[in-house]
Amino acid sequence: MTVGRAAVWWLVATAPLAGQEARARLAGRVPGAALPALDSIVLAAGDEGIPTEPLIQKALEGGAKGAPPERIVAAVSLSASQLRRARALLRSTSEGQPAGPAEVTAVAAALARGVSPQLVESLTAALSGEPTGPSLHAVADLIGHGFTEDAAVGLIVDAAHQGLRGLRLLDVAAAVVLELQRGRSRAMALARVQDMLPTVPAPPRLAPATVSKARRLPPPSEPPP
User: Fold this and answer.
1) What's the pTM value of the predicted model, to 2 decimals?
2) DSSP labels for 134-177?
3) Are residues 128 and 180 both part of a single domain?
4) pLDDT for 4-53, tens place per residue?
5) Same domain, residue pair 190 and 137
6) Are residues 31 and 91 in the same domain?
7) Same domain, 22 and 88
8) First and final CA of the chain: distance in angstroms?
9) Is 224 found in the same domain as 131?
């Protein structure tokens, strides 16, 4: 048996096992009427090499919220489509090289937050060889607070080039938001954090009562930088 045939045989043999594991985790936690469709979605994703754990988690989330079967199936199907789109996008930006499950999941989550495919491509090109998940979410946080894509990408890429990685990139975005909350304009907040690089402090830990009352800033009245 050649190596290629062995790999194909392994995928065929383990696909039903993956489906059985998913059903065992979902049984009793999602409506029984949703299980056949969820099985089909998870099995198809596994056959394609798409991460299945986010799909199972999405189904469990729907079950915990008491969502009806059709809504759970629709949400999981949408998640599968987003994961396929993310994997295809990563392949196109990395010359066909396979992306790991964590990277595909991170990009899918960023796309779901409204990050454009063009932004993913530009960020991947600017940070060639680096995991894009943390940088994408840092950029998405900034965009969510009214910054333009160019300004957000520029700051995060600059931070990465100065040696910041992973959660530290999220600290950069959090520092900018903190400057906004202190009353600075968006341009001033960006400049302030730019000057801090690479020694941006970790954001202060908020008390639970503060977090529960947190609200997103209103849409910008000033032209975004």
Assistant:
1) 0.66
2) HHHHHHHHHHHTT--HHHHHHHHHHHHHTT--THHHHHHHHHHH
3) yes
4) 444 333 333 334 445 567 888 999 999 999 999 999 999 999 998 899 99
5) yes
6) yes
7) yes
8) 60
9) yes
